[in-house]
């Protein structure tokens, strides 16, 4: 039987990608002391890289928001796998760290980060409201446009 969050995902027609295996020496999720710490997730959708390049050069803010949303969908997929499929165990989205591959004169990282922030509220409601950092960087692994890490409180 689908849980409350699965029903929200289905009702809103939000599809989750397959949780990707790590590509280096780390685990995607560590659960400790009631918190789930998620490794950075990038703009990959079921093995296919999307949005490679820099914001302010290759992509506009709106495309950056789409890229950030993909990162968020990967975060939710990883969390679902780590929680044995039960997203109803999420008590709160605590914090998001959003890294934006930025051209030197790009200053709208917070607007890009709204793509993942809006997703968390859309899926988890008030429990999706979180603290956040939005940081511009000169490069990201594999030249992806956005990477997001996260901390969730879980039951």
Automatic annotation (TrEMBL):
It comes from the Bacteria. Residues 12-147 form the Endoribonuclease L-PSP/chorismate mutase-like domain. This is Endoribonuclease L-PSP/chorismate mutase-like domain-containing protein. It comes from Hypericibacter adhaerens. PANTHER family: ENDORIBONUCLEASE L-PSP_CHORISMATE MUTASE-LIKE DOMAIN-CONTAINING PROTEIN, ENDORIBONUCLEASE-RELATED. InterPro entries: Endoribo_LPSP/chorism_mut-like (IPR013813), RutC-like_sf (IPR035959).
């Amino acid at each position: 039987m689908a849980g409350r969050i699965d029903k929200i995902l289905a009702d809103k027609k939000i599809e989750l990608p397959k949780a990707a295996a790590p590509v280096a020496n780390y685990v995607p999720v560590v659960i400790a002391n009631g918190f789930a710490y998620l490794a950075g997730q990038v703009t990959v959708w079921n093995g296919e890289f999307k949005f490679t390049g820099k914001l302010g050069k290759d992509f506009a803010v709106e495309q950056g928001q789409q890229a950030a949303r993909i990162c968020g969908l990967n975060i939710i997929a990883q969390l679902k796998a780590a929680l044995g499929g039960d997203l109803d165990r999420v008590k709160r989205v605590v914090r998001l760290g959003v890294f934006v591959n930025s051209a030197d004169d790009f200053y709208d990282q917070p607007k890009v980060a709204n793509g993942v922030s809006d997703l968390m509220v859309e899926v988890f409601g008030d429990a999706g409201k979180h603290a956040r950092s939005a940081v511009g960087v000169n490069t990201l692994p594999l030249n992806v446009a956005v990477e997001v890490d996260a901390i969730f409180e879980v039951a």
